[in-house]
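Good day; I would like, with your permission, to put a structural problem before you. The record follows directly beneath this note:
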Amino acid sequence: MKNPLAWTAVIVVLVGAAAYYFWRGTAAPDAPAPPVAAAPAPAPLPVPEPPSILHPVAEPQPGSPPLPPLAESDLAAKEAMTSLFGNDAVARMFVPEGLVRRFVATIDNLPRKTTAQRLMPVRPVPGAFVVTGGGDALAISDENAFRYRPYVLILEAAEAKKLVATYVRLYPLFQAAYQELGYPNGYFNDRLVQAIDDLLAAPEVASPRLVQPKVLYRYADADLEDRSAGQKIMLRMGVSNAQRVKDKLRAIRKELTGQMTPR
């Protein structure tokens, strides 16, 4: 039986029968067996309400061109990215396959402790990670910031209003990918705002100190090492780059929510 209530009823009957036969030698011969009380019906479980939406995205305007299904959205996403960043930047910096799914998965992971490079919509930053010093003086080199500069310049060149307008136009695809990721009642735009706020909260530390217990580097400061994946990316790119990225993120957040964020 697959019904757990049915299994419970069987156990009650067996225990009652065992007790009857155990006590049968001393009971009066004509004593009737006590009636078995029926188990009360379980109370129905409350139906959870869907979470409230904190930052709703405007519905598509009537007459807007229809979007393709998520599984066929690569061309539409690539055309949108090209309109924002240019064909050369898209070809050099972005992964063309599964752009919408990659963007959604990366945004969802940035406030967490780790994120997977294989899921990111952008290609890895070129060049080797640059450090300076050794021993207790081991730290991220200021030269490491140059590796991130092309990405920062591309982001700065895109107008926040146009970025958000493109995002809103494609939003049904992002929402579908977020639900597919395992959040059937979630709202992706709320998660995006959470990720932006987490990045804006990243500390600005010049040349943070490192340790290298094995192959990988770790931050010597336990507080920095415990930061989210997104904040660690901000730390790696250098203070100047991080400040410029934060300026753009504040502008994007304002367009998304109509609210300014404190510096």
Remarks:
- Residues 4-22 form the longest helix (19 residues).
- The radius of gyration is 29 Å.
- The chain is about 50% helix and 5% strand.
- Residues 70-257 form one domain.
